[in-house]
């Protein structure tokens, strides 16, 4: 694990992507196959299952360090990371164990079947035989919380540099339902058998937000405009008599949306559709809000009641594979025509719809259509160049999202909580309230949107203006008003205020506004009535 | 009580004197020259001979009496003496004895020798007033040799890569300590004005430090390629730094022990160099005093005093205006100079 720890250090010591890519490419050139396969797995979110609870790890670490558990727990919020806390409190190692990454992982997984005494003995021996950085990396393997400051994209680029394989092609090869148990470095990266994994998805095309006036994109006739729906982006695959539904985060969602199984009866083999999964109101033939879909995301299978309350619909954007052929290089106009033909004669009860084109003679016409988005449950428009191929990943040029400006409300900060990791010593997680007569009613939390300098400033203020503490949460003097931006608002019986916001964040610190001028619960209810 | 904790600072009624007071008083006994301990505005100051030059340099024309380490001085009904604290050159713990009862105020201290400060000397006492800047078991320091190897390796690497290493260090203590770790064979050492001024004061009082070249507008930087630059932390990322071309930035502080702080600091490298005792050092120092009562000042006071209580000490927390809350420190500007 020495090499892997050295890689970790190299990645950790720089913020420059070029340097990171080079370090990772070096590692990919020299590491043994089993180690590089695991490295690809770890950096693409394919973690080994956790075999030991963090509760046990905390107890054992405290015991080994000769400190009471409360003192260990007191260290954790200061460090902000459990793996690091353990690595730091333990005494210096007394031996040196040098095993490759894949062997450590194999031995850890074998502990799954072992009794507690065996597990503990193994972990303590490992802690005593690893120098600090390796110990930290080992703990990361134990706790499964991998983040090395390397995106999957950066990892893929490094692998492309190391192997000479085209980056887009590699992105595709690394997708799908594989694990280091089911494949080898050679089979995954160097010589993939196209039939080996029928479920393998294509890399999703992603869009940037329109920066300027969209008229700068050229004649409106060169573009396909569609609604931007607020659902779950998904890729539906029909191959070999089976079907799979992948999320953008490369998670299989097939079992969560059993309604889509009937596609096997209506759509031909060798079909791959890119679309949006939405909860659908079949009576009005329009989407229900995201909050109706949300209960279906967290669970592996869906009870009947939910199926009836929030039936799924696939709104199809694009056709990536047709008759078993990868048609991504074809222009969008062609792909869309084929998609329309595929979906043309399906009975309406089959839960798939062609994403309707939003037609307008010119850009102002489209702008007007965009402005009406919220009323029909959309977030804005998507603009796609009509003659463009389907490209992998986020690129500028062919795909743009043209979202509505967010809704905003001025709210009072009432609770603060420290962040974790990089933000462990800063107060970054806040609860906001609206006024209701003399009372303040909490309605949302927000974590992002401020600059580092603003977070530092508010942190210092929070320390001096704490009025009460509830565990890690501090109640603060209601003094500061923030403009909270959000994408949508919906009724929620689970929240005290009766509303739930979509993507709330701090848009601005309103130093100019006294608390008495913050928005009220009535304002919030009016927004709910208008947009909920 | 031999010492009392008052609004203006730690007070000895028998001597009618304060130790490191934070409000102007008549008589101030000063442990060391950092600005949160040696403040402006007192009528009379008393410090060690070795601490005096820096304190004069910083506070200007003050009424300052000096005393050698270990020499007893009668003030009122108290006997006072100063003992090495190992924190920075000239730093002291202050021992106060009244009618056979002895209390010691540690000021800031470090138990491991750094080859520059007078090594920490345990002083037996009944009550010990300790700092707790790094009073959690996650803090433990590498050896001087290890530090020297890390910093010099970074210097050599950046030099080879055509970059200039700029290391953020507090002007008093940390800067000179790092100077002592640097290998002048690698290249010249350039200093920011704030670092150079304090270094000259300490050199003048006999400290052996490698040669430094102050960075002035007139200095021809091209003639000093491959140099290490020592600057106060505030200079990192400033316009001043741009003159060195491509740089690699480093920061030397005990806080660099934590990865989160290292990353937030956004320096390319963090070196774990502290003028304070680590967890083991604090515990060893307290045990060596033989004190039954321990008062914990600035740092992780709540956690550390609770720990001491489990170890059988009669432990309490004293609110002072030394340093800040520990969580504040990683981002402090050198104007406050609390010397991490």
UniProtKB/TrEMBL annotation, chain A:
It catalyses: ATP + (deoxyribonucleotide)n-3'-hydroxyl + 5'-phospho-(deoxyribonucleotide)m = (deoxyribonucleotide)n+m + AMP + diphosphate. CDD domains: Adenylation_DNA_ligase_Bac1, OBF_DNA_ligase_Arch_LigB. SUPFAM superfamilies: ATP-dependent DNA ligase DNA-binding domain, DNA ligase/mRNA capping enzyme, catalytic domain, Nucleic acid-binding proteins. It comes from the Bacteria. Residues 305-436 form the ATP-dependent DNA ligase family profile domain. The keyword DNA repair applies. Its EC number is 6.5.1.1. GO terms for biological process: cell division; DNA recombination; DNA repair; DNA replication. GO terms for molecular function: ATP binding; DNA binding; DNA ligase (ATP) activity; metal ion binding. It is an enzyme of class 6 (ligase). InterPro entries: ATP-dep_DNA_ligase (IPR050191), ATP_dep_DNA_lig_pp_1105_fam (IPR026333), DNA_ligase_ATP-dep_C (IPR012309), DNA_ligase_ATP-dep_cent (IPR012310), DNA_ligase_ATP-dep_CS (IPR016059), DNA_ligase_ATP-dep_N (IPR012308), DNA_ligase_N_sf (IPR036599), NA-bd_OB-fold (IPR012340). Keywords: ATP-binding, Cell cycle, Cell division, DNA damage, DNA recombination, DNA repair, DNA replication, Ligase, Magnesium, Metal-binding, Nucleotide-binding. Transmembrane segments: none annotated. The keyword Manganese does not apply. PANTHER family: DNA LIGASE 1/3 FAMILY MEMBER (PTHR45674), DNA LIGASE-RELATED (PTHR45674:SF13). This is DNA ligase (ATP). It comes from Roseicyclus persicicus. The lineage of its organism: Bacteria, Pseudomonadati, Pseudomonadota, Alphaproteobacteria, Rhodobacterales.
From TrEMBL, chain B:
Keywords: Exonuclease, Hydrolase, Ligase, Nuclease. This is Ligase-associated DNA damage response exonuclease. The keyword Hydrolase applies. GO terms for molecular function: exonuclease activity; ligase activity; RNA endonuclease activity. The keyword Isomerase does not apply. Residues 321-340 are annotated as: Disordered. Its EC number is 3.1.-.-. InterPro entries: MBL, RibonucZ/Hydroxyglut_hydro, Xnuc_lig_assoc. NCBIfam families: Xnuc_lig_assoc.
């Amino acid at each position: 694990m020495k090499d892997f720890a050295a890689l970790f250090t190299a990645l950790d010591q720089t913020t420059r992507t070029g340097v990171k890519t080079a370090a990772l490419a070096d590692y990919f050139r020299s590491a043994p196959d089993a180690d590089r396969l695991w490295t690809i797995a770890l950096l693409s979110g394919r973690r080994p299952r956790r075999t030991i609870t963090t509760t046990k790890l905390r107890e054992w670490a405290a015991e080994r360090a000769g400190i009471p558990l409360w003192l260990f727990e007191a260290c954790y919020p200061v460090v902000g990371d459990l793996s690091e806390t353990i690595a730091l409190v333990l005494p210096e190692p007394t031996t040196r164990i040098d095993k490759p990454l894949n062997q450590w992982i194999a031995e850890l997984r074998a502990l799954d079947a072992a009794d507690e005494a065996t597990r503990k003995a193994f972990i303590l021996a490992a802690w005593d035989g690893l120098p600090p950085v390796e110990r930290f990396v080992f703990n990361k393997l134990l706790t499964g919380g991998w983040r090395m400051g390397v995106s999957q994209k950066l990892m893929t680029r490094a692998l492309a540099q190391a192997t000479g394989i085209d980056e887009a092609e590699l992105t595709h090869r690394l997708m799908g339902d594989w694990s280091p148990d089911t494949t080898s470095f050679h089979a995954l990266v160097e010589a993939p058998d196209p039939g080996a994994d029928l479920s393998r998805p294509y890399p999703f095309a992603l869009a940037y937000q329109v920066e300027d006036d969209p008229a700068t994109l050229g004649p409106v006739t060169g573009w396909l405009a569609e609604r931007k729906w607020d659902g779950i982006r998904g890729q539906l695959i029909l191959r070999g008599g089976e079907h799979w539904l992948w999320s953008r985060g490369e998670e299989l969602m097939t079992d969560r949306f059993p309604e889509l199984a009937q596609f096997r009866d209506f759509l031909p083999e060798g079909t791959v559709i890119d679309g949006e999964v939405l909860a659908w109101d079949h009576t009005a033939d329009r989407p229900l809000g995201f909050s109706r879909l949300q209960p279906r995301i967290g669970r592996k299978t869906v009870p009947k009641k939910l199926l009836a309350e929030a039936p799924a619909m696939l709104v199809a954007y694009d056709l990536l594979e047709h008759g078993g052929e990868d048609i991504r290089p074809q222009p969008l106009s062609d792909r869309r025509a084929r998609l329309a033909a595929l979906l043309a004669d399906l009975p309406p009860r089959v839960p798939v719809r062609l994403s309707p084109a939003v037609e307008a003679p010119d850009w102002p016409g489209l702008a007007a259509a965009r402005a009406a988005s919220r009323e029909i449950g959309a977030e804005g428009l998507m603009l796609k160049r009509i003659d463009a191929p389907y490209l992998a990943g986020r690129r500028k040029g062919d795909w743009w999202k043209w979202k509505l400006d967010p809704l905003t409300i001025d709210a009072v900060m009432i609770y603060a909580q420290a962040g974790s990791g990089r933000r462990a010593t800063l107060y970054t997680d806040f609860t906001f309230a609206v006024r209701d007569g003399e009372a303040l009613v909490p309605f949302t939390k927000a974590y992002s949107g401020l600059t580092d300098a603003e977070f530092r400033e508010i942190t210092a203020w929070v320390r001096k203006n704490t009025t009460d503490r509830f565990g890690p949460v501090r109640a603060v003097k209601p003094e500061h008003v923030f403009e909270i931006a959000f994408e949508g608002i919906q009724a929620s019986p689970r929240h005290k205020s009766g509303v739930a916001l979509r993507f709330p964040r701090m848009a601005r610190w309103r130093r100019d506004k006294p608390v008495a001028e913050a928005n009220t619960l009535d304002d919030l209810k009016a927004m709910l009535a208008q947009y909920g | 009580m031999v010492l009392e904790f008052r609004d203006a600072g730690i007070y000895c009624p028998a001597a009618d004197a304060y130790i490191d007071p934070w409000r102007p008083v008549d008589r101030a006994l000063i442990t060391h020259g950092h600005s949160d301990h040696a403040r402006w505005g007192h009528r009379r100051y008393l410090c060690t001979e070795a601490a005096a030059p820096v304190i004069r340099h910083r506070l200007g024309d003050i009424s300052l009496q000096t005393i050698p380490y270990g020499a007893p001085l009668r003030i009122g009904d108290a006997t006072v003496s100063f003992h090495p604290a190992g924190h920075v050159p000239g730093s002291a713990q202050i021992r106060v004895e009244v009618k056979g009862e002895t209390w010691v105020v540690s000021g800031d201290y470090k138990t491991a020798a750094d080859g520059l400060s007078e090594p920490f000397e345990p002083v037996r006492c009944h009550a010990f007033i300790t700092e707790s800047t790094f009073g959690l078991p996650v803090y433990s320091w590498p050896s001087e040799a290890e530090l020297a190897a890390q910093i010099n390796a970074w210097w050599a690497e950046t030099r080879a890569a055509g970059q200039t290493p700029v290391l953020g260090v507090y002007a008093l203590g940390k800067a000179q300590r790092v100077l002592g770790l640097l290998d002048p064979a690698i290249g010249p050492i350039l200093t920011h004005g704030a670092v150079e001024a304090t270094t000259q004061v300490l050199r003048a009082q006999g400290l052996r430090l490698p040669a430094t070249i102050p960075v002035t507008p007139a200095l021809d930087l091209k003639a000093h390629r491959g140099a290490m630059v020592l600057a106060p932390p505030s200079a990192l990322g400033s316009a001043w730094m741009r003159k060195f071309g491509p740089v690699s930035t480093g920061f030397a502080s005990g806080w660099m022990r934590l990865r989160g702080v290292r990353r937030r600091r956004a320096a390319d490298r963090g070196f774990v160099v502290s003028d304070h005792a680590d967890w083991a050092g604090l515990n060893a120092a307290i045990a060596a005093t033989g004190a039954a009562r321990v008062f914990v000042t600035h740092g992780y006071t709540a956690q550390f005093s609770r720990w001491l209580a489990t170890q059988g000490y009669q432990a309490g927390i004293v609110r002072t205006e030394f340093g800040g809350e520990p969580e504040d420190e990683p981002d402090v500007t050198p104007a406050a100079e609390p010397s991490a």
